[in-house]
Amino acid sequence: MSTASPIPALGPGIAELTGPVIIGYLLHWGLFGALTIQLYLYYEAFPLDRLAIKLLVYTVYIIEFAQTMLMTYDAFGTFGYGFGDTTTVTNVHFDWLCIPIMGGIIGFLVQSFYAHRIYVFSESKVIPGFIETISLASVVAGFVLGALSYRSSQLTQLHHQSNYTAAAVWNGGTALCDIIIAGCLTYHLSKHDTEYRRTHLLILKLIRLTIVTGSLTALVAITNLVLFLVPRRIYFTAAGAVQTKLYANAMYAVLISRFRIVGGRGYSPSIDFVSTGEFRDNPRIGSGVVHSASSPVITIRREVFADRELDELVRSKCINVKSGVVEDLPQSCFNPYETQSRV
């Protein structure tokens, strides 16, 4: 009678191989779940955004979804039918495509989004053009690193000079773009601050969000580069697996920061405006929320990330809470940042 062959004993250093990989997979899946929730919130709250913004949002999600499916396939190959074989842990699999190539594409799209916002604020092409140039160099370096990785059969064989150069340009350029973007947006948002409480709170919220997301993505890019330089180790797989998802989540967080939860923290019952330019009481306007309140005062914020359609609405319209319709009112009832109409 035949007996099953025993599973070979794994060495004491197995955690150095499997640890970074499994941590990267877990964080990657968690961030993909957060990204999906943010996509749903964006879909529900902002149907009136410009077509270009919608295309950017859904294109990023499609790429992220494809990346997650490929990494899930790799995870099953490593810890499923290849379990116990240490060579499957260090196999390149689809890492050459998922991390440097897809990561470079997502980084370029997100940084281009921020560069356009800086251009809208500053009305100058110098800094946005500089950001686009560095971002383009980074994505090219990511493609080069992906091609070099594809030629290697093991992740531990990636440590040589040509790969170091490509990784340095990719991650270093990405981190530099993030720092410039965070600094420029913080500066321009501060310049647009006003004495109006709602606008002031909104700008403070956007400044905090910009600093946190920019610092986090830059830190992960630098960490990925530093870990890549450690010879004969694959610690960089953990940072590489989450880098792309952080970029996408950061962009989504900026877009849905216009969303306001009724009864949430910082909510004032005298403010009936909840979601940028969207009011469910009137289907002609959009799909936000207008609810009854004790005070018949409406405040409409011109958000710094709002679309031109909203700007036109704010400059030319007021909303009647009782009738739920848009009414033309004299321009004297408006100011550039907050609009109040008594009905």
Automatic annotation (TrEMBL):
Keywords carried by this UniProt record: Membrane, Transmembrane, Transmembrane helix
Metal-binding found in the keyword field: no
Membrane-spanning intervals of the chain: 22-43, 55-73, 93-114, 126-148, 168-190, 202-228, 234-255
Alphabetized PANTHER family for the sequence: CHROMOSOME 1, WHOLE GENOME SHOTGUN SEQUENCE (PTHR40465), DUF6534 DOMAIN-CONTAINING PROTEIN (PTHR40465:SF1)
Domain of life: Eukaryota
Domain DUF6534 residues, every copy: 175-258
InterPro entries: DUF6534
Upper taxonomic lineage: Eukaryota, Fungi, Dikarya, Basidiomycota, Agaricomycotina
Protein name: DUF6534 domain-containing protein
